[in-house]
Structures are given as C-alpha cells and as structure tokens.
Amino acid sequence: MNLRRRIRVGDHGAFGELFDAYARSVYNHAYRLTGEWTVAEDIVSLTFLDAWRLRERLDEDGGSLRPWLLGIATNVTRNTRRAARRHAAAVARIPVEEAVRDFSDEVAGRVDDAAQLAAVRTALARLRRTEREVLALCVWSGLDYRAAAEALGVPVGTVRSRLSRARTKLAKYLEPAHTSGQVRGDRGTAVGALREGNS
C-alpha cells in the first residue's frame, strides 16, 4: 500500500513518515510567510493536525505530498493571521487601565509627616495656654492682631508679644528633634505656617 493510501486509512506510522519527510519544508514555508520562527513552529503543528483531519480527502494516486501539505500550511497561516488581527482589534478595544502608581513615596512621606506633626504637637503642648490661643487665632484662624486682641480681650501689644514668644519657643522646642534626626526636613517647614500672617 502506498503512502497516500496508508495516510487515508489513518495509519499512524504513515503520518510519522509524512512528518519526517516534510516538516522542515512546511516550517520553511511558514517562516517565509510569517517571518516569525515561533509562529512558524505553531503553523507546522497545526498543518499536520489539519492534514490528519483532512486525510480522507487526499487522492489515493499522485506524486509528492509536499504540495498538499504546503497548501494546508498556507490556509493555516491565513487563518492564524486573521485570528491575530481579530485578537489585536479586540485588545485595542479594551480600555487602557491606568498604571498602578507606586505609592511607597507617598506612604514614606506620610510617615515623615506624621512624625513631624507629632513633634509639632509635643512642642505646642509645651507652650502656655495663652500662647497657644494667640497661635490659634493669628496663625490658624488668620485673624490680624487687632481682631485677635478683641477676641481675647487683651491689648494688641499683648497679642504681638505672646505670638513672638510662642514662635521663639516652638523653634527652640523643635530644634533638638531636627538635629537628632527624629524629624526630617527643614525646621522652618515645621513652623513655617507660624511665620505666615501677622508678623
């Protein structure tokens, strides 16, 4: 029985012979069509799979089986390219997700901010109540000296002197933490808000 007839009846040995004889030729053809060796390898596998599926359509008489296999390989390549185009088009329609941003710097910054805030809170707690009140009114609430004096029922000069003492003390209280490395950044940053407004 010739090779064609053996293939038609599903002889596994005949398919082994077919593969050994023409796999390289099918691979070269697929590579020339695609220019990609990995795709060409896939096409070889799919070509022989299709050849097995289509074996009963093979004429019993004829010459080399190379043209038959290369025809199958050409169709497989065409289908593979069509599927790749459909896949690329489908992927292009998927909304692009925003890159997940690296929040480690933000977390580190928040940790630094928390440490700095704790140092500022400790320093504020060391101030006299009257000094904290002046800070609260003039710096955080944005009142001018006259309005703060009115709110506290004290002269404007008293507001000025209390605010000046509060600033000096805060700078002093925050200095050791800054120089020991407990609070990163500029001491001026920690008390920068205090320098705004009514100086």
Attribute tags:
199 residues; mainly alpha; 9 helices; rod-shaped; disordered C terminus
Structure write-up:
It is a single chain. This protein has 199 residues and is an all-alpha fold. Helices cover 72% and strands 0% of the residues. 20% of the residues are buried.
Question: What proportion of the residues form beta strands (DSSP E)?
Answer: under 5%
Mean pLDDT: 81
Number of helices: 9
The N- to C-terminal Cα distance equals: 108 Å
Number of strands: 0
Global structural class: mainly alpha
Percentage of residues assigned to helices: over 70%
Shape: rod-shaped
Spell out the helices and strands N to C. Answer: HHHHHHHHH
Sheet with the most strands, sense and barrel status: none
- Parts with pLDDT < 50 across at least 5 consecutive residues: 177-199
Radius of gyration: 42 Å
Chain-wise SSE layout:
Elements: H1 3-8, H2 12-34, H3 37-53, H4 66-93, H5 104-125, H6 129-140, H7 145-152, H8 156-179, H9 187-190
Helix pairs in contact: 2-3, 2-4, 3-4, 5-8, 6-7, 6-8, 7-8
Can you summarize this structure?
The chain is mostly helical.
